[in-house]
Design brief:
alpha/beta; 5-stranded mixed β-sheet; 16 helices
């Protein structure tokens, strides 16, 4: 960790602790009950029955997290999500977060859920002063560097990125929030929507046609599998479409793989459908590729079967994102 980052961490932790102690002190002076939970490791020793009674009275419960057993609210209400990938899960479980990172505000399908939600800063370094001011009763993150500072603000659940597939992650976050039934209800609704789309696309699915996903960046090309967003979960897991075997071999294990212009025929040439994302602000790399004979000779290009997806909308792989991606993907496949 460089000195600048280390300094930020120390300053952030000190700020959080100072503000937290000040807030708690103010509550005591006013005679109000102290609402900030105390972790099991920091609590004074007591008999098991006394500890259980204290947890029951304060509405707290134990949760086995990746950082050990912590106490969290029995049913969290004021939730801050410091990383973009879990925001949709929290929403689908029936909770509107009070704070979220800036990236989620760019995706069209979140907008209706984020009215009044505070932008808490970059997910790589959330603004602790904003989070403290929001007075959360629970924080959810996968940011290891910020975890210690965040855990001094409120109970913080650390869920390592990639630990769960999208269905299991929603169910786990539902358990964390005390809203398992809401999470399962969303999955039931989603499964019905998928079944309807599969019925409409029965001929396409039965045809054995293949799909490949790739992105054009300013200087690079990348191939994607089914576990790195970009609509892979819908195309491959939910609709049951297949990728060319070379795409499977190259990108499915790690979720992505580098691609070169020269290797486009090898990896994309067999695909009947191409899903393409554009992360090339200048458009120069895109123009160079599209003007090449290599690109023009690709089967899906010649058939007009290329879907240009919005990278902000196809980046995520959470319940809200998947529902939106399902609609766009199904509409495209029906027309082709």
């Amino acid at each position: 960790m460089n000195s600048r980052r280390k300094g930020w961490m120390i300053a952030g932790m000190l700020l959080a602790v100072v503000l937290l102690i000040s807030a708690c002190g103010g509550k005591k002076e006013n005679g109000a009950a102290e609402s900030q939970p105390v972790s099991a490791s920091a609590a004074p020793s007591a008999s098991p029955s006394a500890e259980a009674s204290e947890s029951a009275n304060s509405g707290m419960r134990d949760y086995e997290s990746a950082k050990g057993v912590i106490q969290i609210p029995a049913k969290a209400e004021r939730v801050v999500v410091t990383v973009p990938d879990y925001v949709g899960d929290v929403i689908a479980a029936g909770v509107t977060p009070i704070g979220a990172p800036p990236m989620v505000f760019q995706a069209s399908y979140y907008k209706e859920y984020l009215n009044g939600v505070e932008n808490i800063g970059d997910d790589a370094g959330p603004a602790l002063e904003k989070i403290v001011a929001l007075q959360p009763d629970l924080i959810i993150t996968y940011n290891d560097e910020a975890y210690e500072a965040l855990s001094k603000v409120a109970p913080t659940v650390f869920i390592p990125y990639g630990q769960y597939a999208y269905r299991e992650r929603l169910q786990e976050i539902g358990r964390i929030l005390g809203r398992e039934s809401e999470a399962n209800a969303w999955l039931d609704t989603f499964d019905k929507a998928v079944a309807e789309k599969k019925e409409l696309l029965a001929d396409v699915i039965a045809s054995g046609k293949t799909v490949a996903i790739f992105e054009i960046w300013e200087k690079e090309l990348y191939l994607y599998g089914k576990s790195f967003g970009r609509g892979g979960a819908i195309l491959y897991d939910e609709l049951g479409l297949k990728a060319p075997q070379k795409v499977v071999n190259a990108a499915f294990e790690n979720g992505w793989a580098p691609l070169s212009l020269e290797s486009i025929p090898e990896y994309l040439g067999e695909a009947d459908y191409l899903f393409r994302g554009l992360r090339d602000p200048s458009g120069k790399n895109q123009a160079s590729i599209e003007s090449s004979k290599i690109w023009k000779d690709v089967k899906a290009v010649q058939a007009g079967a290329v879907y240009d997806y919005n990278v902000d909308d196809f980046y995520f792989q959470d319940p809200i994102a998947l529902k939106s991606q399902l609609e766009g993907i199904a509409e495209f496949l029906q027309k082709h």
